[in-house]
Specification:
Blueprint: E1 5-10, H1 15-26, H2 44-59, E2 66-69, H3 73-86, E3 91-94, H4 111-117, H5 119-128, H6 141-155, E4 162-167, H7 169-179, H8 184-193, E5 201-207, E6 210-218, H9 220-225
Parallel strand pairs: 1-4, 2-3, 2-4
Antiparallel strand pairs: 1-5, 5-6
Helix pairs in contact: 2-3, 6-7, 7-8
Amino acid sequence: MTVRELWLVRHGESIGNVAATRAEIEGLEVIPLDERDADVPLSDTGRDQAAALGGWLQGHRGSVDAFWVSPYRRARETLEIALEASGGDGAVVVDERLRDRELGILDLLTRTGVVRRHPEEMARRKHLGKFYHRPPGGESWADVALRLRSFLREALAGPGERVVLVAHDAVVMLLLYVLRGLREDELLAFADDHTVLNASVTHLVRGADGWELIDFSDVAHLQREGADVTAHPGSPDVEPA
């Protein structure tokens, strides 16, 4: 069996999202967060968003054959709460290749922190560009795309034809890059104009000519259930001056 329909879901708002946004606004260098990235839970708003996602799942009951999810807590919680709220269940596959992008020495730094503490990385970023810049100890977008290609080679063979994947904003963007065969410049132009919102659903269908993007970052289910719509930047990529 071959997967022919995919719904890509970003996790609900996390306490890390909230802390990072507050730190950026306050001009801090370091995001005040004690948890390691893999253990960051949802915020109260994120839990409400995940429950609203459950309403979307309930409306798609019978249409989804399987679920794939990042091992990070915020993604697993999003799926667990959504499944419980939908009154349903399903086959769930957890795969570490769906984890968020690793930032290495830039982890927990705000944009201000990156500029002040690692100006050398600004120069490297300017030279290499966003797609290929790899912070020491971390990953570039190209690195994430590579592990996603590995995942898709196995996952697209099944089980089921219709699958929901719950992960992170960078993972959603780079799955679009891989599945739709985009060039680097096409991906970056798309990412500049589009934001993967928390608990949003991006819908792709495989046709004769490849994967077609049906909906991007849809949050109608949040609006229907009265849950807050939140964006939050995913990582402190700093644009060189």
